[in-house]
Amino acid sequence: MCSIGRVHDGQVDTTRLASEHGLPGHLVDFVSAMRRHGVAVGPGETVDAARVLGALDLLHREHLREGLAAALLRRSGQRQVFDTLFELYFPAALGRGSAEVEVPRVDDAEDGPVDVDALRDILADLLRDGDTAALTDLARAVVDALGTSGGAGAGSKRAGGQPSWSAYQALRMLSPETLLARIVDDLRGDHPDEGPFADEVLRREIRDRIAAFRTMVTDEVRRRTAEHRGREQVARNAVPRQAEQVEFLSAYAEQLTTLRRLVHPLARRLASSLAVRRKHARRGTLDMRRTLRRSMSTGGVPMRPAYRTRRPGRPELVVLCDVSGSVAGFSHFTLLLVQALREQFSKVRVFAFVERADEVTHLFEPGAELSDVMARVLREAELVAFDGHSDYGSALGGFAEFWGEAVTSKTSLLILGDARTNFRDPNLTVLGRLVGQARHAHWLNPEPRRQWGSGDSAALRYADVIPMHECRTAAQLADVVEALLPV
User: Fold this and answer.
1) In which band, very low, low, confident or very high, does the pLDDT at 8 lie, cut at 50, 70 and 90?
2) Which end of the chain is more exposed for a tag (fewer CB within 10 A), N or C?
3) Where are the beta strands (DSSP E) in 289-446?
C-alpha cells in the first residue's frame, strides 16, 4: 500500500511512498477508483496528474492533495469524492502512526484504562486553541484508545481475527459536542466586553472545530480499516456519491442544500449546450420548389439546394408539479432549474397540486429565494380538499377546468410527480386532452422505473398517454431537460 507518513514538522515521510507497481502505478489505481465513483477522469487529466507528482515536493502532503485536485477535477461537486479517495490511497500514516499526544491513563498505569475525563480536558484545550495538527494527532490516539471493538485497546479484533475500529464508539465516549459551552465560556472570559453578535460568531467557530475533529476521527477509522480490509472494499461504502448522483427521494437536508447550489452551474451548462444546438440547426427543411427552380440553370441537377428559413420562437412553458411530502425535494430542485432557465421560454406558468391544483406563478418573482417561495406555496395556495394525500385525477381535472386555456399549440407541458394516486381515479381522459392541446408534453418521475406500476402507482398507465422520463438524480434531470429544451 502506498502511504505518506506524517512526521512532526508537517511534512511527509517519502520512504513510505511506495507500492507494488511504484508511484505511477499507484496513481493509475487512484484514477481508476475515481472513475469507478463517477468522476470523469481521462488520459489527459491523468498525464497532468503525473506531471504534478513530478513537479511538487512530495514532502508536503497538502500540496500533493491540492495539486492532484487541480489536475483531475473538472466540475463542481466532485471534491468530496476526491478527498475521501485521497485519504484512502495517500494515507497520512501506517498502522498506529506517530503522535505527540499521549492518552492519559487512570493512575498513570501504562496499560490501565483510559482516563476519559482527562482526555476530554486535553480535547477542550486543543479545540479552544484551534491547533489543527495537534487535533489530528489526538484523533489518531483516540481511535487507538477508545475506538477499537469493545473499547479494550489496539488488540481488539473481530470474530474472524481482524482488528476493527468504530468512530461512533470513540466519539460517543468522548462526546466532544458537550464541550461547546465550556470552551465558549473560557474564550468569553478573555473578552468579557464583546456583545451577543461576537458570542454567536465564537459559538459557530467552536462548532466548526468540533465538526472538523469528528471528521478527523472518522477519517482515521476509515484509514485503519482500509489497511486491513483493502481500499476498494472500504471505498464502496465510505466514498460519498457526487451531488448529481444523489437520489432526490432519499436525499437528506444537507444533500438537498448541496443540490440547490448546483442549479445555476447546471443551468449555465444547459444554456450553453442549447446555444450550440441552435447554432447547428439554423437551416430549416429542404424547400423542394426553390431547389427545382435553381436546378433549371444547371440542366436539372440540384447543385444548390434551397432550405426554408427557420423562424424559431421560444415556446411557452406550463409546469404542473406535485408538492406533497413524498416528492417535495424533487419538485423543489426541478423548479429551481426551471426558474434558472426561464429566459429560454417566452412565458412560464407554474401550477402546484396535492389534491387540487392552484396557480402559483405570481410567487416566482425574479430573484425570489425558492425555499421561501415553496413555503408560501404550501401556506397560501389552495392545494388540499379532504385528507391532504396526492390525488392526480382530481388535480388534473381541476387544472383543465379552470386553467385549460393555458395549454395551447405553443405550450410545452411539464408534469412533475411520482404518479402515486393513492388508488384514486387517474383521470387519463383529461390528461390525454391536455397532451393533445400542447406542442410538447412530458412527465418527469423521480421514482425508479422498476417501481412504476407497483402499489398505487399509475405511472405505466400515464406513460401510455404522455412520455414519462425517470429523473431520480440531478444528472438524469439535466439530461432530460437538455433533450426537452426547445431549439
Assistant:
1) very low
2) C
3) 307-309, 316-322, 347-353, 357-359, 411-416, 440-445
Let me know: does 442 contact 415? Beta carbons within 8 Å: yes
Nearest in space to 333 (alpha carbons), one of 343, 323, 347: 323
In this structure, the strands spanning 5-6 and 440-445 are: unpaired
Phi, psi of 413 (to 5 degrees): -100, 125
Q: Are 40 and 242 in contact (CB under 8 A)?
A: no
Residue 215's identity, in one-letter code, is: T
Tell me the C-alpha distance between 321 and 336, whole Å. 12
Run of H or E residues at 121: helix 116-129
- Grid coordinates belonging to 238: 465510505
The Cα-based distances of 392 to 38, 386, 417, 420, 464 in angstroms read 36, 14, 9, 8, 16
pLDDT tens digits, residue range 11-45?
A: 444 444 444 457 888 899 999 999 988 888 999 99
Longest dimension (CA), the chain: 109
Domains and CATH numbers, the chain: 5-89 (no CATH), 106-240 (no CATH), 253-281+313-484 (3.40.50.410), 285-312 (no CATH)
What cell was used for 387?
Answer: 385528507
Phi, psi of 105 (to 5 degrees): -115, 150
Instruction: State percent of the chain over pLDDT 70.
Output: 84
Per-residue CA distances from 128 to 131, 187, 205, 217 (Å)? 8, 7, 10, 18
Q: Which residue has the cell 468504530?
A: 166
